[in-house]
TrEMBL record:
<comment type="similarity">
    <text>Belongs to the two pore domain potassium channel (TC 1.A.1.8) family.</text>
</comment>
<feature type="transmembrane region" description="Helical">
    <location>
        <begin position="116"/>
        <end position="136"/>
    </location>
</feature>
<dbReference type="InterPro" id="IPR003092">
    <property type="entry name" value="2pore_dom_K_chnl_TASK"/>
</dbReference>
<feature type="transmembrane region" description="Helical">
    <location>
        <begin position="199"/>
        <end position="217"/>
    </location>
</feature>
<keyword id="KW-0630">Potassium</keyword>
<feature type="domain" description="Potassium channel">
    <location>
        <begin position="169"/>
        <end position="256"/>
    </location>
</feature>
<dbReference type="InterPro" id="IPR013099">
    <property type="entry name" value="K_chnl_dom"/>
</dbReference>
<feature type="transmembrane region" description="Helical">
    <location>
        <begin position="229"/>
        <end position="251"/>
    </location>
</feature>
<dbReference type="InterPro" id="IPR003280">
    <property type="entry name" value="2pore_dom_K_chnl"/>
</dbReference>
<feature type="transmembrane region" description="Helical">
    <location>
        <begin position="166"/>
        <end position="187"/>
    </location>
</feature>
<protein>
    <recommendedName>
        <fullName>Potassium channel domain-containing protein</fullName>
    </recommendedName>
</protein>
<keyword id="KW-0813">Transport</keyword>
<feature type="transmembrane region" description="Helical">
    <location>
        <begin position="91"/>
        <end position="110"/>
    </location>
</feature>
<dbReference type="Pfam" id="PF07885">
    <property type="entry name" value="Ion_trans_2"/>
</dbReference>
<dbReference type="GO" id="GO:0015271">
    <property type="term" value="F:outward rectifier potassium channel activity"/>
</dbReference>
<keyword id="KW-0812">Transmembrane</keyword>
<keyword id="KW-1133">Transmembrane helix</keyword>
Length: 336
């Protein structure tokens, strides 16, 4: 027991140290390049405001292209120059990005743009994704252990096994939906200004690792977020992934069991239908076409042997009588 707890503690500590180290490296590699890109976007905006009445169609097209590229790279040229100091690659955002890499969510709104950052991201994901799988497996075991303890407690209270299984499953689903979907959606509604349905949508799309990127936390222009907001969201994602992975495994098991039941029922229905069809065909046949064994009433094996032996015995008796009569005639002839 102590050894298992020690292994779990070391795994959790190593996992978060790996994420923290990755966040620090991403911050160092990407922050300077992002600052330069923001300054270039601000200069582009300033030049547009000074000359927009004299721009040609080609210059306007080039401006729109540069603006679109800046937005795709996470640079929003909105507001004054003080926003240049607000970085998408501060430590909180870098930790959030590291978490989305190892969890394979990949929103696409924040990504490394320098050569060093891209190469590091490849190796960080190469070792981080397997580590994340091990971490989620261990957290899933802990959640399963809690459900087993609940089942053991209910069993000691004298509850039946089927009821225990149902209540344990209900507890697992209700607790997970409340902690990882419902409550975070309220939090996102307050912090991001989304509707509650949008919060539910974002939570599920994120935890299921679909990650469309249409809704991302901490990216609303003009909203003030508290420090380490995205770090807190990243931790919610990491533990929520373990819960939803168990939920998907449970649903997979239910679907497989349902499939087996359906296949079994279809086989039984097909077998009964086949037997009924064969019986109906026999009833419709003329009597001369029905095999004799199906026409004969059931009888004992000994009686059947007796019935079959009667003609043979009669024939044998006739032969004996003929032989005796022939012998007697010969004897009389010889005497004469």
């Amino acid at each position: 027991m102590c050894s298992g707890k020690l292994q779990t503690g070391l795994l959790v500590a190593g996992y978060f140290v790996y994420l923290l180290a990755g966040a620090a490296v991403f911050q160092v590699l990407e922050r300077t390049a992002e600052k330069q890109e923001k300054m270039a976007a601000a200069q582009m905006k300033e030049a547009f405001l000074q000359n927009f009445t004299h721009l040609t169609v080609a210059e306007m097209e080039q401006f729109m292209k540069n603006l679109t590229e800046a937005i795709q790279n996470g640079v929003y040229p909105v507001g004054n120059e003080s926003q240049i100091e607000d970085s998408n690659w501060d430590f909180s955002n870098s930790f959030f990005f590291a978490g989305t890499v190892v969890s394979t969510i990949g929103y696409g709104t924040l990504r490394p743009k320098t050569a060093g950052g891209q190469i590091f991201c490849v190796f960080f994901a190469l070792f981080g994704i397997p580590l994340n799988i091990v971490f989620l497996h261990r957290v899933g075991k802990m959640l399963s252990l809690l459900c087993k303890k609940l089942g053991k407690f209910l069993h000691e209270k004298g509850m039946r096994k089927k009821k225990i299984k149902f209540l344990t499953l209900l507890f697992f689903l209700a607790t997970g939906i409340l902690v990882f979907l419902c409550l975070p959606s309220v939090f996102f509604q307050i912090t991001e200004g989304w509707s509650y349905s949008e919060g539910i949508y974002f939570a599920f799309i994120t935890l299921s690792t679909i990650g469309f990127g249409d809704y991302v936390v901490g990216k609303q222009p003009g909203r003030n977020y508290f420090s380490y907001y995205r770090t807190l969201v990243a931790i919610w994602i990491l533990f929520g992934l373990a819960w939803i992975a168990l939920l998907f495994n449970l649903l997979t098991t239910v679907l497989e069991d349902t499939e087996k039941i359906i296949v079994k029922d279809l086989y039984q229905i097909g077998k009964v239908s086949k037997d009924n069809e064969a019986s109906q065909q026999i009833r419709c046949w003329p009597a001369q076409l029905i095999p004799e064994e199906e026409l004969q009433p059931p009888c004992a094996e000994g009686d059947a042997q007796k019935i079959e032996s009667l003609p043979a015995d009669s024939e044998h008796t006739k032969n004996e009588k003929k032989t005796f009569s022939y012998s007697k005639t010969i004897a009389i002839t010889c005497e004469d």
